[in-house]
Amino acid sequence: MTARALAAETRAWLEAQGFAPAPGSDAPWLEALTHGSFNGSGAEATDYQRLEFLGDRVLGLSVAAWLFRAGDAPEGRLSQRLNALVSGATCARIARAIGLPVHIRLGKQARDDGGADSDKILGDVMEALIGACFIAHGFDAAQALIYRLWTDELEGDVGKAKHPKSALQEWAAGNRRMAPLYEVTDRAGPDHAARFTVRVTVKNVGSAEATATSKGEAERLAAKAFLEQFG
Fold first, then answer.
1. Comparing C-alpha atoms, which of 230, 211, 214 is closest to residue 222?
2. What is the pLDDT of residues 188-221, one digit of tens each?
3. Which residues in the chain land under pLDDT 70?
4. Hey, CA dihedral for 81, 85, 88, 92, is it positive or negative?
5. Do 47 and 36 contact (CB within 8 A), yes or no?
6. Distance between CA 163 and CA 160 in Å, rounded?
């Protein structure tokens, strides 16, 4: 195996998941699996960011098309489900389910810091692999892969329930309270494995806190905690 070839176990894993890397065409798959902390030089140092950019768009279009064909929900409902289905948290959940973490190429410090279990990294790499699939096999193959990997999410309830932040906003308005105020009270860990603590406060009612690997997810969890306590 050369420095620019997939490890045998990673190739077998990619094939088992349906990514179908062709012999001698390892470059996009290596790029998709490589975090910026991975030690290398020249082409070897290329990380997943460009493919993540591409895969994000392929994923979004594929899921939007599925939702559009699945029923006659209004635009607002479609957007709510789309945002949930393509979120970093959903991508990371699917990444864990298919065993992606052990195949990510991380620098030693990033791995020691828990990078292989970071929602941000897992979500980005999942999208980068979709981008690599698009480059290698075209849109139809990438879309079919997404529909297979996202089956449970698409057919389940992800994004159907009202987002906690929206629900809290409506609760505050309905109870003649000021709009909820969100503030980051703590940020810990390195950039690739950061954890955010967010407090949400409704004046003259109370506050609640939550911690997550992204500011948005921490806000969502804080709103959910607030509603459970005061709603």
1. 211
2. 998 888 899 999 999 999 999 999 989 989 999 9
3. 1-3, 39-45
4. positive
5. yes
6. 9
Q: Is there a catalytic annotation at residue 112?
A: no
Cα 217 to Cα 89: distance, rounded to the nearest angstrom:
8
Q: How far apart are the C-alpha atoms of 129 and 19, rounded to whole Å? A: 8
From the candidates 47, 56, 113, 119, which is the catalytic residue?
Answer: 56
Provide the whole-model pTM. 0.72
Q: Are 209 and 195 in contact (CB under 8 A)?
A: no
Neighbours of 160 (CB within 10 A): 11
Catalytic residue among 47, 127, 153, 217: 127
Residue 228: count other Cβ atoms within 10 Å of its Cβ.
10
Burial group, residue 71, by CB count within 10 angstroms (0-12, 13-18, 19+)? exposed
Secondary structure in 3-state letters for 119-174: HHHHHHHHHHHHHHHHHHHCHHHHHHHHHHHCHHHHHCCCCCCCCHHHHHHHHHHH
Taking a C-beta distance cutoff of 8 angstroms, is the pair 20, 137 a contact?
yes
Q: Which amino acid is at 227?
A: L
Amino acid at 127: E
Tokens encoding 177:
């309270």
Give catalytic status of residue 127 as yes or no: yes
* Pair of tokens at residue 41: 């030089």
